[in-house]
């Protein structure tokens, strides 16, 4: 199936000459949730702004459902909903009007039933006659989402949706994102909250210094790069790792009372049985065992630091 969003060698240099996107290529499948992860200043917002026509691109191209974002910008933009990072609402306008007008801006015919559906989905229906200034911060964020959905976009960009949002709203947002995906909407979200990507994304793209470092199915990424660690608590502390255990790459912590062993989750043999046998043979008595899986956050930090180290060399 052709991707709904296709980005090719996209470049963006700001007026001061700074190149924020250095040739980004990315294909986004219809109906998927892609999490775009990257440290501060990596180029996430620039990429979204470029695709949404807010920032003028300086090289490369992008198409939304086949519509070029430059040559055919109006058709491309109509297919996109954008929930920006910053709250930019008219304070004295009522919620209902704010969302309805937004639909009109895209030249879509009035459809009160759709606006009602969106407001209900976002638990804003009982606030429809409230002015924006009367809403809490979390409710304003919901209004931003409602506005972005007002013209029935096929692709929705969520730029840091959970910044400053409480746990309840975050869960609510995840539910809405799930419902939208069910309805066939493609979602691209940027987040610093990596647990969010772990919870809802189908694929993960990592961007650093204007370049995509990796795009991969989340589950396979976590399987491929995920490591598990085994903590072995010892009955008697060790002064150092015995030479016979050198090849296991162990670390010794907790005042010599804990050995930590990292192993590959995808490896055919984890080496745990061999390690335990070697400990028994060396007369090292084990008090307790416990394993811990690396999270998407560990993988992300490893990737970005690896990139920074390479750049420094
Ligand atoms: N208008 C501008 N003029 C010059 N440089 C800019 C401008 N806007 C952004 N930049 C620079 O481009 C780079 C990418 O910024 P961008 O906002 O896209 O990053 P980001 O990944 O969204 O970061 P964050 O996670 O902090 O939101 C940064 O180095 C930033 O300073």
Automatic annotation (TrEMBL):
Single annotated GO MF: ATP binding
Keyword Ribosomal protein listed: no
Annotated InterPro entries: AAA+_ATPase (IPR003593), ABC_transporter-like_ATP-bd (IPR003439), ABC_transporter-like_CS (IPR017871), ABC_transporter_ATP-binding (IPR050763), P-loop_NTPase (IPR027417)
Start and end residues of each ABC transporter domain: 5-234
Matching Gene3D superfamilies: P-loop containing nucleotide triphosphate hydrolases
Keyword vocabulary terms for this entry: ATP-binding, Nucleotide-binding, Transport
Protein name: ABC transporter ATP-binding protein
């Amino acid at each position: 199936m052709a991707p709904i969003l296709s980005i090719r060698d996209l470049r963006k240099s700001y007026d001061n000459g700074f190149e924020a996107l250095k040739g980004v290529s990315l294909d986004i499948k219809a109906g998927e949730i892609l999490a775009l992860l990257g440290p501060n200043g990596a180029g996430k917002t620039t990429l979204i702004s470029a695709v949404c026509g807010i920032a003028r691109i300086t090289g490369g191209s992008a198409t939304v459902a086949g519509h070029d974002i430059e040559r055919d910008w109006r058709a491309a933009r109509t297919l996109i909903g954008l929930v920006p990072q910053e709250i930019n609402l008219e304070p004295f306008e009522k919620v209902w009007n704010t969302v309805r007008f937004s639909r009109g801006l895209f030249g879509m015919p009035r459809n009160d039933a759709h606006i009602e559906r969106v407001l209900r989905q976002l638990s804003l229906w009982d606030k429809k006659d409230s002015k924006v200034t009367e809403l809490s911060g979390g409710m304003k964020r919901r209004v931003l989402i409602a506005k972005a959905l007002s013209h029935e976009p096929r692709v929705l960009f969520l730029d840091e949706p959970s910044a400053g949002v409480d746990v309840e709203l975050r869960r609510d947002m995840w539910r809405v994102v799930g419902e939208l995906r069910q309805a066939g909407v493609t979602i691209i979200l940027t987040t610093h909250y990596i647990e969010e990507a772990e919870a809802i994304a189908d694929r993960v793209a990592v961007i650093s210094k204007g370049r995509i470092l990796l795009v991969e199915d989340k589950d396979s990424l976590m399987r491929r790069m995920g490591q598990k660690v085994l903590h072995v608590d010892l009955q008697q502390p060790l002064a150092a790792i015995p030479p016979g255990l050198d090849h296991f790459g162990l670390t010794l912590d907790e005042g010599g009372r804990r050995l930590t062993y990292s192993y590959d989750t995808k490896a055919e043999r984890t080496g745990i049985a061999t390690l335990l046998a070697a400990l028994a043979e060396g007369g090292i008595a084990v008090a307790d065992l416990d394993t811990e899986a690396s999270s998407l956050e560990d993988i992300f930090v490893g990737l970005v630091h690896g990139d920074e180290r390479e750049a420094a060399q």
